[in-house]
């Protein structure tokens, strides 16, 4: 049985800033772009979250929600230095470390003899060492696989530890809302709800054949996750090759104008994700992905060293010319030069935050809009300024540490 730890620093960029200036600790604080330059919040501390501020929110909206909010510009060199210290601590316990971003990683400690071979005790010791050495807190989840470990790390945020032992997996997963499953976004959650499926226990009542019929290839993944099955290995030193965001729409988009508006919104989210990954210097291509109402897909890309909303809209228009179909899914992303990119791991579909992840519901839809896309329209949209966002931490409940002292098997 594997022993996986998912470590996630709490509001990482903001935590580093509060570490360096303790006077910031008791006031609403965010790191991100300027409101007057269409900036986006990268992360914010928990004081700011009480006002409804969260990562990937526009800085202007954040200021309206919290007029006393202090927004600091990102200091990536400082954050990278802290990240290197943290990752070095992780590697003291295992070589099997898979970074997902500057502040988040999976660790496979199955073969470790440290801390009596206990993943729980290793996680506790890591959290204490990171706090003592780097001055930021880490929330951790311990479980037999990556899927459950990631959910567990969110359970007692901030500065928490939650353990799911092998014999607890079945009951733990059965009680989970399906919206907690990584890869289940708003569209898939809505479809599941319409089928009377709100929990994993209810999802288990559906056969693999039925799920495949209704959700395509993603049906198999749903079948496995509902049973707590996740065989993905921890992939050490994996290089990122791309960073992207995409959204599946409940109602198909019928016009270029509708699609262009969505692309601009996605570019803002992409900027935030790139900043979080520390990959801005390594961008080599920009691409737009389109899935049409008939489930055919196309990708259009160009050479680029930065994101640009107007360029993305131009790529969109070219892609729409390829099929006279309404649009079911849009995505925008960048390809990374492996020789220059920071090695912090590659985002995978099921590791992404649900708000940004693709629904991946490749279903045989019963009804799709047949409206033709206005593919030959001129895209005269104004370019959004690139958001200097550094999206970092999810807003989670302020629960206490689980303090589970019994080592898992």
UniProtKB/TrEMBL annotation:
Cofactor(s) in the UniProt record:
Mg(2+)
Q: Where is the active site?
A: 104
User: At which residues is there a site annotated Substrate discrimination?
Assistant: 13
Entries under InterPro entries matching the protein: DNA/RNA_pol_sf, DNA_pol_Y-fam_lit_finger_sf, DNA_pol_Y-fam_little_finger, DNA_polymerase-Y, DNApol_IV, IMS_HHH_1, Rev_trsase/Diguanyl_cyclase, UmuC
Q: Binding positions for Mg(2+)?
A: 8, 103
Protein localization: Cytoplasm
The top EC class is: transferase
Cofactor stoichiometry and binding remark? Binds 2 magnesium ions per subunit.
Coiled-coil ranges per the record? Answer: none
Task: Tell me which UniProt keywords the record has, alphabetically.
Answer: Cytoplasm, DNA damage, DNA repair, DNA replication, DNA-binding, DNA-directed DNA polymerase, Magnesium, Metal-binding, Mutator protein, Nucleotidyltransferase, Transferase
What is the first-listed, main subcellular location in coarse terms?
cytoplasm
The EC number(s) attached to this protein equal: 2.7.7.7
**GO CC annotation:** cytosol
Name all UmuC domain ranges: 4-185
Q: What PROSITE patterns would the database entry show?
A: UMUC
- Catalytic activity, reaction form: DNA(n) + a 2'-deoxyribonucleoside 5'-triphosphate = DNA(n+1) + diphosphate
Annotated SUPFAM superfamilies: DNA/RNA polymerases (SSF56672), Lesion bypass DNA polymerase (Y-family), little finger domain (SSF100879)
GO terms (molecular function) for this protein are: damaged DNA binding; DNA-directed DNA polymerase activity; magnesium ion binding
Highest taxon listed in the record's lineage:
Bacteria
Q: GO annotations under biological process?
A: DNA repair; DNA-templated DNA replication; error-prone translesion synthesis; SOS response
Give the function comment from the record: Poorly processive, error-prone DNA polymerase involved in untargeted mutagenesis. Copies undamaged DNA at stalled replication forks, which arise in vivo from mismatched or misaligned primer ends. These misaligned primers can be extended by PolIV. Exhibits no 3'-5' exonuclease (proofreading) activity. May be involved in translesional synthesis, in conjunction with the beta clamp from PolIII.
NCBIfam families xref list: PRK02406.1
Q: How does it assemble?
A: Monomer.
Q: Which family does it belong to?
A: Belongs to the DNA polymerase type-Y family.
Protein name (database record) = DNA polymerase IV
Give the organism the record lists: Burkholderia ambifaria MEX-5
Q: Which gene encodes it?
A: dinB
């Amino acid at each position: 049985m594997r022993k996986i730890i998912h470590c996630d620093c709490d509001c990482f960029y903001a935590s580093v800033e509060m570490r360096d200036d303790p006077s910031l600790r008791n006031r609403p604080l965010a790191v991100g772009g300027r409101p007057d330059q269409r900036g986006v919040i990268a992360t914010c501390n928990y004081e700011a979250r009480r006002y409804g501020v969260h990562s990937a929110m526009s800085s202007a909206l954040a200021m309206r929600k919290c007029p006393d909010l202090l927004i600091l510009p990102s200091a990536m060199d400082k954050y990278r230095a802290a990240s290197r210290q943290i990752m070095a601590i992780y590697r003291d316990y295992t070589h099997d470390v898979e970074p997902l971003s500057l502040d988040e990683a999976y660790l496979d400690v199955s073969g470790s003899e440290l801390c009596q071979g206990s993943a729980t005790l290793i996680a506790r010791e890591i959290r204490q060492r990171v706090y003592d050495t780097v001055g930021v807190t880490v929330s951790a989840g311990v479980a037999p696989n990556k899927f459950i470990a990631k959910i567990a790390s969110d359970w007692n945020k901030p500065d928490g530890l939650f353990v799911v032992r092998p014999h607890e997996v079945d009951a733990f997963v059965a009680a989970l809302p399906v919206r907690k499953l990584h890869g289940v976004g708003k569209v898939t959650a809505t479809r599941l709800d319409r089928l009377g499926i709100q929990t994993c226990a209810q999802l288990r009542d559906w056969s693999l054949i039925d799920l495949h019929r209704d959700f395509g290839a993603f049906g198999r993944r749903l079948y496995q996750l509902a049973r707590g099955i996740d065989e993905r290995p921890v992939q050490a030193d994996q290089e990122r090759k791309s960073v992207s965001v995409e959204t599946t729409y409940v109602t198909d988009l019928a016009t270029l104008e509708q699609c262009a508006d969505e692309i601009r919104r996605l570019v803002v989210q992409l900027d935030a994700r790139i900043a979080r990954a520390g990959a801005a210097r390594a961008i080599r291509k920009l691409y737009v992905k389109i899935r049409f109402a008939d489930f055919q897909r196309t990708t259009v890309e160009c050479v680029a060293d930065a994101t640009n909303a107007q360029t993305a809209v131009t790529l969109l228009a070219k892609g729409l010319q390829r099929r006279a179909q309404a649009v079911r899914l849009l995505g925008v992303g960048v390809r990374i030069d492996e020789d220059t990119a920071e090695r912090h791991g590659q985002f995978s579909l099921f590791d992404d935050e649900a708000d940004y992840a693709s629904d991946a519901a490749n279903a045989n839809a019963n009804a799709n809009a047949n409206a033709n896309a206005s593919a030959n329209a001129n895209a005269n949209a104004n370019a959004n300024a690139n958001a200097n966002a550094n999206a970092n931490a999810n807003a989670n409940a302020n629960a206490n540490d689980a303090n589970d002292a019994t080592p898992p098997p």
